[in-house]
Amino acid sequence: MAEEIRHPFLHGLSKHRGSPPTVVVIFGASGDLTARKLIPAIYNLAHDGLLPADFFLIGFGRKAIPDAEFQQVAADAIKEFSRREMSPEVWARLAPRTLYVSGGYDEKAAFDRLGARITGLEKEIGQQLQSLFYISTPPTVFAPIIQNLGASGLAARYLRQAHQSKVIIEKPFGRDLASAQALNRELTTFFVESQVFRIDHYLGKETVQDLLVQRFANAIFEPIWNRNFIDHVQITVAEQVGVEARAGYYEQSGCLRDMIQNHTMQLLALTAMEPPVSMDAESVRDEKVKVLKAIHPLRLQGGGRLSDVARAQYGDGVIGGKAVKGYRQEPGVSPVSATETYAALRFTINNWRWHGVPFYLRSGKHLARRVSEIAIRFKHTPGNLFGGGERSQIAPNTLAFQIQPDEGLSLILNAKIPGLETRTQPVKMNFKYATTFGSNTPEAYERLVLDAMIGDGTLFIRGDETERSWQLITPIHEFWAEQGSAGLDTYASGSWGPASGDALLAANGHAWREP
Ligand code: BG6
Protein backbone atom coordinates (compact mmCIF):
# COMPACT_ATOMS: atom_id res chain seq x y z
CA MET A 1 0.00 0.00 0.00
CA ALA A 2 1.26 3.48 -0.79
CA GLU A 3 2.72 5.27 2.18
CA GLU A 4 0.32 7.89 3.47
CA ILE A 5 1.35 11.30 4.75
CA ARG A 6 -0.69 12.45 7.74
CA HIS A 7 -0.28 15.60 9.71
CA PRO A 8 -2.67 18.33 10.79
CA PHE A 9 -2.54 20.44 7.65
CA LEU A 10 -1.71 17.90 4.98
CA HIS A 11 -4.17 15.31 3.84
CA GLY A 12 -5.83 14.79 0.52
CA LEU A 13 -2.90 16.34 -1.36
CA SER A 14 -0.78 14.19 -3.62
CA LYS A 15 2.65 13.71 -2.09
CA HIS A 16 4.25 15.24 -5.14
CA ARG A 17 2.34 18.46 -4.67
CA GLY A 18 3.26 19.02 -1.04
CA SER A 19 4.86 22.30 -0.03
CA PRO A 20 7.90 22.50 2.25
CA PRO A 21 7.50 24.32 5.60
CA THR A 22 6.63 27.84 4.55
CA VAL A 23 6.15 31.38 5.72
CA VAL A 24 3.98 33.54 3.45
CA VAL A 25 4.72 37.25 3.85
CA ILE A 26 2.11 39.63 2.46
CA PHE A 27 3.30 43.14 1.60
CA GLY A 28 0.22 45.34 1.54
CA ALA A 29 -1.33 43.55 4.51
CA SER A 30 -4.05 46.16 5.00
CA GLY A 31 -5.04 46.21 1.33
CA ASP A 32 -8.33 45.24 -0.23
CA LEU A 33 -6.94 42.22 -2.10
CA THR A 34 -5.43 40.83 1.11
CA ALA A 35 -8.80 40.92 2.87
CA ARG A 36 -10.97 39.84 -0.05
CA LYS A 37 -8.80 37.19 -1.65
CA LEU A 38 -5.45 36.34 -0.04
CA ILE A 39 -6.39 35.67 3.58
CA PRO A 40 -9.56 33.74 2.59
CA ALA A 41 -7.45 31.71 0.12
CA ILE A 42 -4.94 30.78 2.82
CA TYR A 43 -7.77 29.96 5.20
CA ASN A 44 -9.40 27.64 2.64
CA LEU A 45 -6.09 25.92 1.94
CA ALA A 46 -5.81 25.30 5.68
CA HIS A 47 -9.39 24.08 5.74
CA ASP A 48 -8.65 21.60 2.94
CA GLY A 49 -5.49 20.39 4.66
CA LEU A 50 -3.29 21.68 1.86
CA LEU A 51 -0.87 23.78 3.91
CA PRO A 52 2.30 22.24 5.33
CA ALA A 53 2.26 21.40 9.04
CA ASP A 54 4.79 24.16 9.61
CA PHE A 55 3.09 27.14 8.07
CA PHE A 56 3.14 30.81 9.07
CA LEU A 57 1.54 33.93 7.65
CA ILE A 58 3.17 37.29 8.24
CA GLY A 59 1.41 40.53 7.35
CA PHE A 60 3.81 43.36 6.58
CA GLY A 61 2.58 46.95 6.50
CA ARG A 62 3.37 50.49 7.52
CA LYS A 63 0.92 50.57 10.40
CA ALA A 64 2.41 49.39 13.70
CA ILE A 65 -0.03 46.85 15.13
CA PRO A 66 0.48 43.82 17.39
CA ASP A 67 0.05 40.25 16.08
CA ALA A 68 -3.29 39.98 17.89
CA GLU A 69 -4.74 42.90 15.96
CA PHE A 70 -3.69 41.40 12.61
CA GLN A 71 -5.21 38.10 13.71
CA GLN A 72 -8.48 39.94 14.26
CA VAL A 73 -8.21 41.60 10.83
CA ALA A 74 -7.62 38.16 9.29
CA ALA A 75 -10.53 36.58 11.17
CA ASP A 76 -12.86 39.38 10.03
CA ALA A 77 -11.70 38.96 6.42
CA ILE A 78 -12.38 35.21 6.54
CA LYS A 79 -15.83 35.75 8.03
CA GLU A 80 -16.73 38.30 5.39
CA PHE A 81 -15.10 36.95 2.24
CA SER A 82 -14.31 33.24 2.52
CA ARG A 83 -16.32 30.90 0.30
CA ARG A 84 -16.74 28.73 3.39
CA GLU A 85 -17.85 29.59 6.88
CA MET A 86 -14.99 29.91 9.31
CA SER A 87 -14.50 26.70 11.25
CA PRO A 88 -13.33 27.44 14.82
CA GLU A 89 -11.01 24.40 14.76
CA VAL A 90 -9.24 25.40 11.56
CA TRP A 91 -8.90 28.98 12.73
CA ALA A 92 -7.60 27.83 16.12
CA ARG A 93 -4.69 26.19 14.29
CA LEU A 94 -4.05 29.10 11.92
CA ALA A 95 -4.54 32.07 14.29
CA PRO A 96 -1.39 31.62 16.42
CA ARG A 97 0.61 31.27 13.17
CA THR A 98 -0.72 34.59 11.86
CA LEU A 99 1.84 37.27 12.70
CA TYR A 100 2.66 40.85 11.84
CA VAL A 101 5.78 42.93 11.14
CA SER A 102 5.56 46.67 10.64
CA GLY A 103 7.81 48.94 8.64
CA GLY A 104 8.24 51.06 5.56
CA TYR A 105 8.75 49.42 2.17
CA ASP A 106 11.84 51.56 1.62
CA GLU A 107 13.24 50.92 5.11
CA LYS A 108 16.00 48.33 4.98
CA ALA A 109 15.94 47.90 8.79
CA ALA A 110 12.31 46.76 8.59
CA PHE A 111 13.33 43.96 6.20
CA ASP A 112 16.12 43.00 8.60
CA ARG A 113 13.49 42.78 11.36
CA LEU A 114 11.38 40.61 9.07
CA GLY A 115 14.39 38.36 8.44
CA ALA A 116 15.04 38.08 12.18
CA ARG A 117 11.42 37.11 12.77
CA ILE A 118 11.65 34.36 10.14
CA THR A 119 14.92 33.07 11.62
CA GLY A 120 13.27 33.10 15.06
CA LEU A 121 10.42 30.93 13.71
CA GLU A 122 12.93 28.50 12.23
CA LYS A 123 14.62 28.16 15.60
CA GLU A 124 11.27 27.59 17.28
CA ILE A 125 10.31 24.72 14.97
CA GLY A 126 13.83 23.42 14.40
CA GLN A 127 13.42 23.49 10.60
CA GLN A 128 14.26 25.71 7.67
CA LEU A 129 11.36 27.70 6.21
CA GLN A 130 10.69 28.56 2.62
CA SER A 131 9.73 32.26 2.34
CA LEU A 132 7.02 33.22 -0.14
CA PHE A 133 6.84 37.00 -0.49
CA TYR A 134 3.51 38.21 -1.87
CA ILE A 135 3.78 41.76 -3.22
CA SER A 136 0.23 43.06 -3.18
CA THR A 137 0.94 46.79 -2.93
CA PRO A 138 0.45 49.68 -5.34
CA PRO A 139 3.06 49.38 -8.13
CA THR A 140 4.89 52.51 -6.97
CA VAL A 141 6.49 50.50 -4.16
CA PHE A 142 7.27 47.30 -6.10
CA ALA A 143 10.85 48.44 -6.72
CA PRO A 144 11.81 49.35 -3.12
CA ILE A 145 10.32 46.08 -1.83
CA ILE A 146 12.27 44.05 -4.38
CA GLN A 147 15.48 45.98 -3.63
CA ASN A 148 15.11 45.53 0.12
CA LEU A 149 14.37 41.81 -0.25
CA GLY A 150 17.67 41.70 -2.10
CA ALA A 151 19.66 43.94 0.27
CA SER A 152 18.47 42.13 3.40
CA GLY A 153 19.43 38.72 1.99
CA LEU A 154 15.81 37.52 2.12
CA ALA A 155 15.64 37.01 -1.67
CA ALA A 156 18.66 34.69 -1.67
CA ARG A 157 17.62 32.40 1.23
CA TYR A 158 18.29 28.75 0.31
CA LEU A 159 18.85 29.79 -3.31
CA ARG A 160 18.65 26.97 -5.88
CA GLN A 161 17.16 24.56 -3.35
CA ALA A 162 13.51 23.47 -3.49
CA HIS A 163 12.70 25.76 -0.56
CA GLN A 164 14.42 28.84 -2.05
CA SER A 165 12.62 32.15 -1.47
CA LYS A 166 9.86 32.93 -3.93
CA VAL A 167 8.08 36.12 -4.84
CA ILE A 168 4.56 36.56 -6.16
CA ILE A 169 4.01 39.88 -7.86
CA GLU A 170 0.52 41.26 -8.37
CA LYS A 171 -0.67 43.20 -11.36
CA PRO A 172 -0.22 45.69 -12.86
CA PHE A 173 3.10 44.34 -14.13
CA GLY A 174 4.21 47.62 -15.69
CA ARG A 175 2.08 50.06 -17.64
CA ASP A 176 3.84 49.69 -21.00
CA LEU A 177 6.68 47.74 -22.56
CA ALA A 178 9.46 49.92 -21.12
CA SER A 179 8.17 49.80 -17.54
CA ALA A 180 7.55 46.03 -17.72
CA GLN A 181 11.11 45.55 -18.96
CA ALA A 182 12.42 47.77 -16.13
CA LEU A 183 10.46 45.75 -13.57
CA ASN A 184 11.79 42.50 -15.02
CA ARG A 185 15.33 43.88 -14.77
CA GLU A 186 14.72 44.87 -11.14
CA LEU A 187 13.42 41.39 -10.32
CA THR A 188 16.21 39.54 -12.07
CA THR A 189 18.83 41.61 -10.25
CA PHE A 190 17.81 39.89 -7.02
CA PHE A 191 15.88 36.77 -8.03
CA VAL A 192 16.31 34.03 -10.62
CA GLU A 193 13.30 33.37 -12.87
CA SER A 194 12.33 30.16 -11.01
CA GLN A 195 11.73 32.31 -7.91
CA VAL A 196 9.39 34.75 -9.64
CA PHE A 197 5.62 34.22 -9.92
CA ARG A 198 3.86 36.95 -11.93
CA ILE A 199 0.20 36.50 -11.18
CA ASP A 200 -2.78 36.68 -13.48
CA HIS A 201 -5.69 35.41 -11.43
CA TYR A 202 -7.54 34.28 -14.58
CA LEU A 203 -5.04 31.43 -14.89
CA GLY A 204 -6.14 30.17 -11.48
CA LYS A 205 -9.78 29.91 -12.51
CA GLU A 206 -10.93 26.30 -12.77
CA THR A 207 -12.49 26.82 -16.19
CA VAL A 208 -9.32 28.38 -17.59
CA GLN A 209 -7.33 25.35 -16.46
CA ASP A 210 -10.06 23.17 -17.92
CA LEU A 211 -9.44 24.76 -21.30
CA LEU A 212 -6.08 22.96 -21.38
CA VAL A 213 -7.68 19.69 -20.33
CA GLN A 214 -10.47 19.99 -22.90
CA ARG A 215 -8.01 20.80 -25.67
CA PHE A 216 -5.36 18.23 -24.88
CA ALA A 217 -7.18 15.37 -23.15
CA ASN A 218 -9.83 14.93 -25.84
CA ALA A 219 -8.85 13.46 -29.17
CA ILE A 220 -11.74 15.05 -31.06
CA PHE A 221 -10.56 18.66 -30.87
CA GLU A 222 -6.97 18.72 -32.11
CA PRO A 223 -7.68 17.58 -35.71
CA ILE A 224 -10.19 20.42 -36.23
CA TRP A 225 -8.40 23.10 -34.17
CA ASN A 226 -7.12 25.08 -37.12
CA ARG A 227 -7.86 27.31 -40.10
CA ASN A 228 -9.36 24.45 -42.10
CA PHE A 229 -12.34 24.16 -39.76
CA ILE A 230 -12.44 27.27 -37.58
CA ASP A 231 -13.87 30.46 -39.04
CA HIS A 232 -13.02 32.80 -36.16
CA VAL A 233 -12.71 33.02 -32.39
CA GLN A 234 -14.49 35.44 -30.03
CA ILE A 235 -13.18 36.09 -26.53
CA THR A 236 -15.43 38.12 -24.26
CA VAL A 237 -14.67 39.23 -20.71
CA ALA A 238 -17.67 41.38 -19.85
CA GLU A 239 -18.43 42.94 -16.49
CA GLN A 240 -21.65 44.46 -15.27
CA VAL A 241 -19.97 46.42 -12.49
CA GLY A 242 -18.63 49.87 -13.19
CA VAL A 243 -15.44 51.41 -11.89
CA GLU A 244 -16.84 51.35 -8.31
CA ALA A 245 -14.47 52.90 -5.76
CA ARG A 246 -11.34 52.35 -7.90
CA ALA A 247 -11.33 55.50 -10.03
CA GLY A 248 -7.89 56.50 -8.73
CA TYR A 249 -6.40 53.32 -10.16
CA TYR A 250 -8.67 52.94 -13.16
CA GLU A 251 -8.19 56.47 -14.51
CA GLN A 252 -4.49 55.62 -14.90
CA SER A 253 -5.18 52.16 -16.25
CA GLY A 254 -8.26 51.83 -18.46
CA CYS A 255 -9.65 48.61 -19.89
CA LEU A 256 -6.72 47.80 -22.16
CA ARG A 257 -4.22 47.68 -19.27
CA ASP A 258 -6.68 46.39 -16.68
CA MET A 259 -8.16 43.46 -18.61
CA ILE A 260 -6.90 43.04 -22.18
CA GLN A 261 -3.11 43.03 -21.78
CA ASN A 262 -3.32 40.31 -19.16
CA HIS A 263 -6.56 38.33 -18.73
CA THR A 264 -7.91 38.24 -22.29
CA MET A 265 -4.44 37.85 -23.86
CA GLN A 266 -3.89 34.84 -21.61
CA LEU A 267 -7.16 33.33 -22.79
CA LEU A 268 -6.09 33.91 -26.36
CA ALA A 269 -2.68 32.32 -25.79
CA LEU A 270 -4.19 29.19 -24.18
CA THR A 271 -6.74 28.85 -26.99
CA ALA A 272 -4.29 29.35 -29.84
CA MET A 273 -1.04 27.78 -28.61
CA GLU A 274 0.39 24.55 -29.99
CA PRO A 275 0.18 21.42 -27.81
CA PRO A 276 3.05 21.62 -25.30
CA VAL A 277 5.46 18.68 -25.04
CA SER A 278 4.50 18.33 -21.37
CA MET A 279 2.47 20.21 -18.79
CA ASP A 280 5.51 21.54 -16.96
CA ALA A 281 5.83 25.29 -16.55
CA GLU A 282 8.49 25.87 -19.18
CA SER A 283 6.85 23.75 -21.89
CA VAL A 284 3.47 25.45 -21.47
CA ARG A 285 4.97 28.93 -21.29
CA ASP A 286 7.24 28.31 -24.29
CA GLU A 287 4.14 27.59 -26.38
CA LYS A 288 2.30 30.66 -25.10
CA VAL A 289 5.25 32.91 -25.94
CA LYS A 290 5.54 31.30 -29.36
CA VAL A 291 1.95 32.06 -30.29
CA LEU A 292 2.14 35.60 -28.88
CA LYS A 293 5.18 36.13 -31.10
CA ALA A 294 3.18 34.99 -34.13
CA ILE A 295 0.52 37.67 -33.64
CA HIS A 296 0.57 40.26 -36.37
CA PRO A 297 1.06 43.89 -35.23
CA LEU A 298 -2.33 45.60 -35.07
CA ARG A 299 -3.42 48.14 -37.68
CA LEU A 300 -4.14 51.37 -35.89
CA GLN A 301 -4.29 54.12 -38.47
CA GLY A 302 -7.26 54.85 -40.64
CA GLY A 303 -10.13 54.06 -38.26
CA GLY A 304 -13.26 52.25 -39.39
CA ARG A 305 -12.71 49.07 -41.37
CA LEU A 306 -8.96 49.47 -41.42
CA SER A 307 -8.43 49.69 -37.69
CA ASP A 308 -8.05 46.58 -35.54
CA VAL A 309 -9.07 48.33 -32.32
CA ALA A 310 -12.09 50.11 -30.87
CA ARG A 311 -12.40 51.90 -27.56
CA ALA A 312 -15.29 53.48 -25.70
CA GLN A 313 -16.52 54.78 -22.38
CA TYR A 314 -19.81 53.94 -20.69
CA GLY A 315 -22.45 56.62 -20.70
CA ASP A 316 -25.76 56.83 -18.83
CA GLY A 317 -27.92 53.75 -19.03
CA VAL A 318 -29.86 51.13 -17.12
CA ILE A 319 -28.35 48.20 -15.23
CA GLY A 320 -30.52 45.65 -13.43
CA GLY A 321 -33.55 47.93 -13.88
CA LYS A 322 -31.76 50.88 -12.25
CA ALA A 323 -30.70 54.08 -14.01
CA VAL A 324 -26.92 54.56 -13.75
CA LYS A 325 -24.64 57.48 -14.58
CA GLY A 326 -21.89 57.50 -17.16
CA TYR A 327 -18.19 57.02 -16.39
CA ARG A 328 -17.30 60.72 -16.37
CA GLN A 329 -19.78 61.31 -13.54
CA GLU A 330 -18.31 58.58 -11.33
CA PRO A 331 -16.63 59.83 -8.13
CA GLY A 332 -12.93 60.49 -8.71
CA VAL A 333 -13.21 60.47 -12.52
CA SER A 334 -12.24 63.56 -14.50
CA PRO A 335 -15.23 65.11 -16.32
CA VAL A 336 -13.09 65.14 -19.48
CA SER A 337 -11.52 61.73 -18.94
CA ALA A 338 -10.36 59.89 -22.07
CA THR A 339 -9.94 56.60 -20.19
CA GLU A 340 -11.57 53.70 -22.03
CA THR A 341 -13.90 51.39 -20.11
CA TYR A 342 -14.37 49.15 -23.16
CA ALA A 343 -11.91 47.86 -25.70
CA ALA A 344 -12.26 45.46 -28.62
CA LEU A 345 -9.39 44.15 -30.73
CA ARG A 346 -9.02 42.06 -33.84
CA PHE A 347 -5.90 39.90 -33.96
CA THR A 348 -4.52 37.77 -36.72
CA ILE A 349 -1.95 35.08 -36.06
CA ASN A 350 0.73 34.48 -38.60
CA ASN A 351 1.31 30.75 -38.44
CA TRP A 352 0.25 27.59 -40.25
CA ARG A 353 -2.53 26.79 -37.78
CA TRP A 354 -4.25 30.17 -37.72
CA HIS A 355 -3.45 32.09 -40.89
CA GLY A 356 -6.62 33.95 -41.93
CA VAL A 357 -8.60 33.20 -38.74
CA PRO A 358 -9.50 36.41 -36.87
CA PHE A 359 -9.39 36.38 -33.06
CA TYR A 360 -11.72 39.01 -31.64
CA LEU A 361 -11.25 40.13 -28.04
CA ARG A 362 -13.52 42.44 -26.07
CA SER A 363 -13.82 43.54 -22.49
CA GLY A 364 -15.69 46.28 -20.74
CA LYS A 365 -17.39 47.53 -17.62
CA HIS A 366 -21.12 48.32 -17.27
CA LEU A 367 -21.98 45.88 -20.02
CA ALA A 368 -25.25 43.97 -20.21
CA ARG A 369 -24.15 41.00 -18.11
CA ARG A 370 -21.14 39.58 -16.29
CA VAL A 371 -19.89 36.89 -18.58
CA SER A 372 -16.51 35.58 -19.71
CA GLU A 373 -16.34 33.11 -22.54
CA ILE A 374 -14.26 31.84 -25.41
CA ALA A 375 -16.39 31.01 -28.44
CA ILE A 376 -14.91 28.95 -31.26
CA ARG A 377 -16.99 29.52 -34.36
CA PHE A 378 -16.62 26.74 -36.96
CA LYS A 379 -17.08 27.15 -40.68
CA HIS A 380 -20.42 26.68 -42.40
CA THR A 381 -21.12 23.34 -44.01
CA PRO A 382 -20.66 23.41 -47.77
CA GLY A 383 -23.92 23.95 -49.63
CA ASN A 384 -27.22 23.58 -47.82
CA LEU A 385 -28.90 20.22 -48.10
CA PHE A 386 -31.79 21.26 -45.88
CA GLY A 387 -33.22 24.25 -47.68
CA GLY A 388 -32.59 26.98 -45.14
CA GLY A 389 -34.98 29.89 -44.78
CA GLU A 390 -37.13 30.55 -41.75
CA ARG A 391 -38.38 26.98 -41.40
CA SER A 392 -34.97 25.39 -41.54
CA GLN A 393 -32.33 27.30 -39.67
CA ILE A 394 -28.74 26.12 -39.84
CA ALA A 395 -26.27 27.77 -37.50
CA PRO A 396 -22.51 27.38 -37.70
CA ASN A 397 -21.24 25.03 -34.98
CA THR A 398 -19.98 26.99 -32.00
CA LEU A 399 -18.01 25.58 -29.10
CA ALA A 400 -18.15 27.94 -26.13
CA PHE A 401 -16.03 27.69 -23.02
CA GLN A 402 -17.99 29.44 -20.29
CA ILE A 403 -15.33 30.81 -17.99
CA GLN A 404 -17.87 32.47 -15.65
CA PRO A 405 -20.57 32.49 -14.41
CA ASP A 406 -22.44 29.23 -15.23
CA GLU A 407 -19.07 27.58 -15.72
CA GLY A 408 -19.17 24.92 -18.40
CA LEU A 409 -18.88 24.07 -22.05
CA SER A 410 -21.54 24.24 -24.72
CA LEU A 411 -21.71 23.15 -28.33
CA ILE A 412 -24.21 24.39 -30.86
CA LEU A 413 -25.23 21.69 -33.33
CA ASN A 414 -28.05 21.51 -35.86
CA ALA A 415 -30.80 18.95 -35.28
CA LYS A 416 -33.94 17.81 -37.02
CA ILE A 417 -37.15 19.14 -35.53
CA PRO A 418 -39.37 16.08 -34.96
CA GLY A 419 -42.13 15.86 -37.54
CA LEU A 420 -42.99 14.61 -40.98
CA GLU A 421 -40.96 17.23 -42.82
CA THR A 422 -37.20 17.70 -42.57
CA ARG A 423 -36.88 20.97 -40.72
CA THR A 424 -33.77 21.87 -38.77
CA GLN A 425 -32.98 23.95 -35.76
CA PRO A 426 -29.78 24.78 -33.88
CA VAL A 427 -29.65 23.02 -30.50
CA LYS A 428 -27.26 23.41 -27.62
CA MET A 429 -25.42 20.63 -25.80
CA ASN A 430 -24.43 21.81 -22.38
CA PHE A 431 -21.93 20.61 -19.79
CA LYS A 432 -22.28 22.46 -16.51
CA TYR A 433 -19.62 22.28 -13.85
CA ALA A 434 -22.05 22.85 -11.02
CA THR A 435 -24.32 19.99 -12.13
CA THR A 436 -21.49 17.49 -12.58
CA PHE A 437 -19.05 18.51 -9.86
CA GLY A 438 -21.06 20.65 -7.41
CA SER A 439 -20.56 24.35 -7.01
CA ASN A 440 -18.09 24.83 -4.17
CA THR A 441 -14.98 25.03 -6.37
CA PRO A 442 -11.74 26.59 -5.09
CA GLU A 443 -11.12 30.24 -5.84
CA ALA A 444 -8.34 31.16 -8.27
CA TYR A 445 -6.11 32.51 -5.50
CA GLU A 446 -6.18 29.23 -3.58
CA ARG A 447 -4.71 27.33 -6.51
CA LEU A 448 -2.18 30.07 -7.29
CA VAL A 449 -0.88 30.54 -3.74
CA LEU A 450 -0.53 26.76 -3.39
CA ASP A 451 1.26 26.43 -6.75
CA ALA A 452 3.74 29.16 -5.82
CA MET A 453 4.41 27.44 -2.47
CA ILE A 454 5.11 24.23 -4.37
CA GLY A 455 7.25 26.12 -6.89
CA ASP A 456 5.05 25.30 -9.91
CA GLY A 457 5.01 28.25 -12.33
CA THR A 458 2.73 26.72 -14.99
CA LEU A 459 -0.16 29.05 -14.15
CA PHE A 460 2.03 32.15 -13.84
CA ILE A 461 3.40 34.47 -16.47
CA ARG A 462 7.02 34.33 -17.49
CA GLY A 463 9.06 37.52 -17.96
CA ASP A 464 9.33 37.22 -21.75
CA GLU A 465 5.62 36.48 -21.98
CA THR A 466 4.55 39.68 -20.26
CA GLU A 467 6.99 41.68 -22.37
CA ARG A 468 5.63 40.20 -25.60
CA SER A 469 2.10 41.02 -24.55
CA TRP A 470 3.10 44.62 -23.77
CA GLN A 471 4.88 44.83 -27.09
CA LEU A 472 1.55 44.22 -28.80
CA ILE A 473 -0.47 46.53 -26.56
CA THR A 474 1.87 49.51 -26.08
CA PRO A 475 1.51 50.88 -29.66
CA ILE A 476 -2.25 51.09 -29.07
CA HIS A 477 -1.73 53.26 -25.99
CA GLU A 478 0.70 55.46 -27.89
CA PHE A 479 -1.79 55.84 -30.73
CA TRP A 480 -4.66 56.65 -28.37
CA ALA A 481 -2.52 59.15 -26.47
CA GLU A 482 -1.89 60.98 -29.76
CA GLN A 483 -5.60 60.94 -30.56
CA GLY A 484 -6.84 62.14 -27.14
CA SER A 485 -10.61 61.90 -27.00
CA ALA A 486 -10.98 61.69 -30.78
CA GLY A 487 -12.08 58.18 -31.67
CA LEU A 488 -13.31 57.45 -28.13
CA ASP A 489 -16.91 56.26 -28.46
CA THR A 490 -19.65 56.09 -25.87
CA TYR A 491 -21.94 53.17 -25.16
CA ALA A 492 -25.06 52.99 -23.05
CA SER A 493 -24.46 51.37 -19.67
CA GLY A 494 -26.21 48.00 -19.73
CA SER A 495 -25.65 47.49 -23.47
CA TRP A 496 -23.15 45.21 -25.20
CA GLY A 497 -20.80 48.07 -26.09
CA PRO A 498 -20.33 50.57 -28.90
CA ALA A 499 -21.09 50.22 -32.61
CA SER A 500 -17.35 50.52 -33.31
CA GLY A 501 -16.81 47.25 -31.42
CA ASP A 502 -19.39 45.57 -33.64
CA ALA A 503 -17.84 47.12 -36.75
CA LEU A 504 -14.54 45.26 -36.14
CA LEU A 505 -16.39 42.01 -36.79
CA ALA A 506 -18.83 43.33 -39.39
CA ALA A 507 -15.86 44.28 -41.58
CA ASN A 508 -15.29 40.51 -42.00
CA GLY A 509 -18.99 39.61 -42.19
CA HIS A 510 -19.02 38.48 -38.53
CA ALA A 511 -21.03 39.55 -35.48
CA TRP A 512 -20.53 39.17 -31.73
CA ARG A 513 -22.66 36.38 -30.41
CA GLU A 514 -24.78 37.24 -27.42
CA PRO A 515 -23.17 35.14 -24.69
C1 BG6 B 1 -9.11 42.54 -12.14
C2 BG6 B 1 -9.39 43.93 -12.63
O1 BG6 B 1 -7.84 42.12 -12.58
O2 BG6 B 1 -10.08 41.65 -12.64
C3 BG6 B 1 -10.79 44.38 -12.26
O3 BG6 B 1 -8.46 44.84 -12.07
C4 BG6 B 1 -11.81 43.34 -12.68
O4 BG6 B 1 -11.10 45.64 -12.82
C5 BG6 B 1 -11.39 41.95 -12.22
O5 BG6 B 1 -13.06 43.70 -12.12
C6 BG6 B 1 -12.31 40.90 -12.79
O6 BG6 B 1 -12.01 39.67 -12.21
P1 BG6 B 1 -13.10 38.53 -12.09
O7 BG6 B 1 -12.36 37.39 -11.49
O8 BG6 B 1 -14.21 39.08 -11.23
O9 BG6 B 1 -13.57 38.27 -13.48
What does this structure look like?
This protein is 34% helix and 21% strand. With 515 residues, the chain is α/β, with parallel strands linked by helices. The chain folds into 2 domains: 8-170, NAD(P)-binding Rossmann-like Domain (Rossmann fold, 3-Layer(aba) Sandwich); 204-379 and 463-506, Dihydrodipicolinate Reductase, domain 2, CATH 3.30.360.10. The strands form 2 sheets. Strands 7, 8, 9, 10, 11, 12, 13, 14, 15 and 16 form a 10-stranded mixed beta sheet that branches. A 6-stranded parallel beta sheet has the order 3-2-1-4-5-6, sandwiched between helices. Strand 5, helix 6 and strand 6 (196-198) form a beta-alpha-beta unit. The radius of gyration is 24 Å and the shape is globular. Residues 1-13 have low confidence and may be disordered. Bound molecules: 6-O-phosphono-beta-D-glucopyranose. 6-O-phosphono-beta-D-glucopyranose binds at residues 239, 258. Residues 239, 258 line the site of 6-O-phosphono-beta-D-glucopyranose.
Features:
single chain; 515 residues; alpha/beta; Rossmann fold; Dihydrodipicolinate Reductase, domain 2; 2 domains; 10-stranded mixed sheet; 6-stranded parallel sheet; 13 helices; 34% helix; globular; disordered N terminus; binds 6-O-phosphono-beta-D-glucopyranose
Architecture blueprint of SSEs:
Elements: E1 22-27, H1 32-47, E2 55-61, H2 67-81, H3 88-94, E3 98-102, H4 108-125, E4 130-135, H5 142-151, E5 166-169, H6 177-190, E6 196-198, H7 206-217, E7 230-238, H8 247-272, H9 281-293, E8 309-319, E9 322-324, E10 342-347, E11 359-364, E12 371-378, E13 398-404, E14 408-417, E15 423-432, H10 433-437, H11 444-454, H12 463-483, E16 488-493, H13 499-506
Parallel strand pairs: 1-2, 1-4, 2-3, 4-5, 5-6, 7-11, 8-16
Antiparallel strand pairs: 7-12, 8-9, 8-10, 10-11, 12-13, 13-14, 14-15
Helix pairs in contact: 1-2, 1-11, 5-6, 6-12, 8-9, 8-12, 9-12
